[in-house]
Write a structure and sequence with these properties.
Layout lengths: L2 H12 L4 E9 L6 E6 L2 H4 L14 H5 L15 E6 L1 H12 L8 E5 L8 H7 L8 E5 L2 E6 L2 E5 L1 H4 L2 H4 L11 E2 L13 H8 L2 H13 L6 H5 L24 H15 L8 H5 L6 H16 L27
Parallel strand pairs: 1-3, 3-4, 4-8
Antiparallel strand pairs: 1-2, 5-6, 6-7
Bound molecules: iron/sulfur cluster (3 copies).
C-alpha cells in the first residue's frame, strides 16, 4: 500500500463534516509495537501506517468505545466513525452489522487488502527487539525487517501468523474506500492445530485442555480484545445468578472457556486476536477454529461474509437434519 495515499485519503475522510474520527494504526514507541490510534485531523492522519505488524483488529473499538454511556447533559455525537480494516477485520464489521451491533450509516470502512501479518512473538524470538524503532515491510511474498539502517529479508513462512496462513479472506469483504490493489488469495492448508487435537484419544484430549485451561489467569484480555464479545451484560460478570464463579481454578476456567467458545460459535471470524493477546499463551484459536469448522461443515455457514445475511443462530432450513435432537 502507498502510505502517502493512505495518509492523504485519511486526511480527506476526517475533514468530512459527517465523520467524527478515524480509527487506524500508527507506529508504537519502540521495537515492533504498533498502536491503534484515533485520528481527528490531518496531523493525526500523517502518522498512520499499514505494515505486517498491524495485527490489532480495530473493529473491537466500534463497540468498546462507541457503546460507552453518554454523560448526563451531553448529547451523543451521531457522526460516523471511519475505520481501517484488513480482510479478517472487515468480517468482524459485517458480523456486527448482521447482528445489528452497529448500523451501516454509522461507519465509513477503509479497506486494506492484506498480504498477511507477522507473528510478532515469533519475530521477536528470532530477531530480538532493539531499543530503536524497527520497521517490517512486505517485499514480493516475503517480509523485510529494517532496523539500525540494516535490511534483513525474512521468508514469509518463517514468521507468518497462523491466522494468516489459514486465511480465506485477505481482501476486505466490505469497503467504502479501498486502499491499494487487491492481493492474490492463497490456498488454505490443512489446519494442523485443530487436526492434531481431533486425532487425540478422548482422555488425552481432556488432559490437553485441562493443562491449557489450568494456566488461564482469567484476565479477560481474550474477551475484551474480541470484536464479537460485546454483550453489555456479560454472563461472566453477573453475580446474581453467578453463572461462572470468580475463583480461578480449572473448573471455573473451563466453564468460562466453554461458555465463551459456544457464544462465539457461528460468529467467530478467526481474526486470532484472543490468542494473540493472551499472556498465558493458551491456544484459543484451536478451540474457536474447531467450532467454526463444525459450523462450516455441518451447516455450510461462514460468519462475517454477507452483510445482507442473517446470524447463524437466526438461520433455519426446513431440511435441517437436526442431528443434535436425541
Ligand atoms: S487473517 Fe487474513 S486478513 Fe487477517 S491479518 Fe491475516 S491475512 Fe490479513
Ligand atoms: S487472555 Fe488468556 S489468561 Fe486471560 S482470560 Fe483469556 S485465556 Fe485466560
Ligand atoms: S473469538 Fe478470537 S478469533 Fe474469534 S472473533 Fe473473537 S478475537 Fe477473533
Amino acid at each position: 500500500m502507498d502510505l502517502e495515499q493512505l495518509r492523504k485519503t485519511a486526511a480527506e475522510v476526517v475533514a468530512r463534516d459527517d465523520v467524527k474520527y478515524l480509527i487506524g494504526w500508527r507506529p508504537g514507541s519502540y521495537g515492533y509495537r504498533i498502536a491503534p490510534c484515533f485520528v481527528e485531523d490531518a496531523a493525526g492522519a500523517a502518522a498512520l501506517t499499514f505494515s505486517p505488524l498491524c495485527n490489532t483488529n480495530l473493529a473491537t473499538y466500534l463497540t468498546l468505545v462507541e457503546k460507552l454511556p453518554v454523560p448526563r447533559g451531553e448529547t451523543p455525537d451521531q457522526r460516523k466513525v471511519a475505520l481501517m480494516v484488513k480482510g479478517c477485520d472487515s468480517r468482524a464489521v459485517v458480523q456486527l452489522l448482521v447482528e445489528k451491533g452497529i448500523t451501516r450509516e454509522q461507519i465509513v470502512v477503509l479497506g486494506c487488502p492484506c498480504p498477511g501479518m507477522a507473528d510478532v512473538a515469533l519475530l521477536a524470538e528470532k530477531y530480538p527487539e532493539t531499543d530503536g524503532p524497527a520497521e517490517l515491510k512486505w517485499r514480493g511474498g516475503d517480509f523485510v525487517l529494517v532496523r539500525n539502517g540494516e535490511e534483513i529479508l525474512i521468508p514469509r513462512e518463517e514468521i507468518l501468523a497462523e491466522k494468516c496462513r489459514l486465511c480465506r479472506y485477505p481482501n476486505p469483504v466490505i469497503s467504502d474506500i479501498t486502499l491499494g490493489e487487491p492481493v492474490a488469495e492463497w490456498e488454505r492448508p490443512e489446519d494442523e492445530g485443530v487436526a492434531a487435537v481431533e486425532k487425540m484419544e478422548v482422555n488425552a484430549r481432556w488432559d490437553y485442555w485441562e493443562e491449557q485451561f489450568s494456566r488461564c489467569i482469567r484476565c479477560y484480555a481474550c474477551r475484551n480484545s474480541c470484536p464479537l464479545c460485546y454483550c453489555e451484560d456479560c454472563i461472566l460478570d453477573r453475580l446474581n445468578p453467578t453463572w461462572v464463579n470468580r475463583a480461578v481454578n480449572f473448573s471455573e476456567n473451563t466453564a468460562f472457556h466453554i461458555a465463551r467458545a459456544f457464544h462465539l460459535a457461528g460468529r467467530c471470524i478467526e481474526c486470532g486476536e484472543c490468542e494473540r493477546v493472551c499472556p498465558a499463551n493458551i491456544p484459543l484459536g484451536k478451540l474457536n477454529r474447531k467450532l467454526a469448522k463444525e459450523v462450516r461443515e455441518k451447516y455450510g455457514f461462514e460468519p462475517g461474509i454477507d452483510p445482507e445475511g442473517k446470524p447463524f443462530q437466526a438461520s433455519y432450513k426446513p431440511d435441517d437434519p437436526e442431528e443434535f435432537i436425541l
